[in-house]
Amino acid sequence: MPDANEPLDLLLLPTWLVPVEPAGVVLENHALGIRDGRIALIASRETALRHPSREVRELPGMLLAPGLVNAHGHAAMTLFRGLADDLPLMTWLQNHIWPAESRWVDEIFVRDGTELAIAEQLKSGISCFSDMYFYPEVASERIHTSGIRAQLCVPVLDFPTPGTRDSDESLRKGVALFDDLKLHPRIKVAFGPHAPYSVNDDTLEKIRVLAEELDANIQMHVQETACEVEQALERHGERPLARLSRLGLLGPGFQAVHMTQVSDEDLALLVESNSSVIHCPESNLKLASGFCPVERLWQAGVNVAIGTDGAASNNDLDLLGETRTAALLAKAVAGSATALDAHRALRMATLNGARALGLDAEIGSLEPGKSADLVAFDISGLHQLPIYDPVSQLIYASSRDCVKHLWVGGKQLLEDGRLTRMDEEELKDRARGWSRKISGLDAGQ
């Protein structure tokens, strides 16, 4: 253990400090100290200032919170942002997105799209994200150099995809990537079978065995629409979640994305297995997929996290905005104004996300010993005043424009709203180039 009197690397003095754990707590006149990339001190301002520190930073008008956790997305799909809007899910997917992916997705596409997504997420207060997309080995390189934290879900489908001929090749490459990154401090590899309707039982059984052997998570789109459930009943004679339970996939490492259709039996399976649900409200709204019953799940004891989904169906990676939508939608769905209050909404975007990804011992709350993954929100703006409950002002009266600073493992990746490791103008130029190429404006396309 380090000497308690050893100097802190950085002492932060925000107006408000929201640790998330314990729940509902807002600390005023407190400070947070960082040493060797970890939270070393949370104390009153007076006490903290007596502690030796190499750097002291005042954060007036700012709320310091755990970095946001975007628990589901498809990072490189930023380059398909706005390509096929205002369409139902299967039309959007089968007639537009899958053909576009077949035509355009390669290693360069994934490199550029993932970098664009990382930059957008950092500027939105996201310190950790989950990615399910092709060429995950390319995405891992971008994650490594950027300094952000991530769960990489190796995509698995029962037909050829960019970079793989079949599901067996996807699994072989996934295991190799897991071995390459198993000691990486910021990247965790998981399996990402696309959905029950696109992966057969034999493949799911292989994934179950590998996940158990490697102690790896599984993330999957499940019961995203009523049509998906109806077709599963016709084809398999059981609901998708029941089928996954029968095959042994559910458990603490299973992340069910969307879950807009939840029966009493589904709820019992989620509770019994301790599986997590990842709620993507804006994508579900835009694709008219349905409404995840967040409050019902929460009250039953299910861990509910939040994700933006990909920029092709959202169309942004703004988790703060997503959380506001989730809080408002939960009230309408539950028919109760007390459903998913602001403090629980912030918990869903931080600690619940970390728990879903199996990272809650490391991130998701501000506690001594945890990694210093932090975000500072400026809530001193005209549109945020007066302030009675700073967390309510953050969730209901703020946008991602109020994100000022972000640290991952104590390293500052965003300072005064500016990226410290990435060239924003270069990223914009690359994105514009892809827009010209995909829309056919470049000669020869």
UniProtKB/TrEMBL annotation:
Q: What's its catalytic activity?
A: S-methyl-5'-thioadenosine + H2O + H(+) = S-methyl-5'-thioinosine + NH4(+); S-adenosyl-L-homocysteine + H2O + H(+) = S-inosyl-L-homocysteine + NH4(+)
By its UniProt entry, which Gene3D superfamilies does this protein fall under?
Metal-dependent hydrolases, Urease, subunit C, domain 1
Q: Which CDD domains match?
A: ATZ_TRZ_like
Root EC class: hydrolase
Where do the Amidohydrolase-related domain residues begin and end?
64-412
One MF annotation (Gene Ontology) recorded for this entry: hydrolase activity
Keywords from UniProt, A to Z, are: Hydrolase, Metal-binding, Zinc
Q: Which InterPro entries does this chain map to?
A: Amidohydro-rel (IPR006680), Deaminase_MtaD/DadD (IPR023512), Metal-dep_hydrolase_composite (IPR011059), Metal_Hydrolase (IPR032466), MTA/SAH_deaminase (IPR050287)
Entry cofactors: Zn(2+)
Residue sites binding substrate per the record: E101, H194, E224, D309
State the source organism's domain of life.
Bacteria
Q: EC annotation?
A: 3.5.4.28, 3.5.4.31
Q: Which residues bind Zn(2+)?
A: H72, H74, H221, D309
Cofactor binding notes: Binds 1 zinc ion per subunit.
The UniProt family comment states: Belongs to the metallo-dependent hydrolases superfamily. ATZ/TRZ family.
What is the recorded function of this protein according to its Swiss-Prot or TrEMBL entry?
A: Catalyzes the deamination of 5-methylthioadenosine and S-adenosyl-L-homocysteine into 5-methylthioinosine and S-inosyl-L-homocysteine, respectively. Is also able to deaminate adenosine.
Q: What's the protein here called?
A: 5-methylthioadenosine/S-adenosylhomocysteine deaminase
Q: Which organism is it from?
A: Azotobacter bryophylli
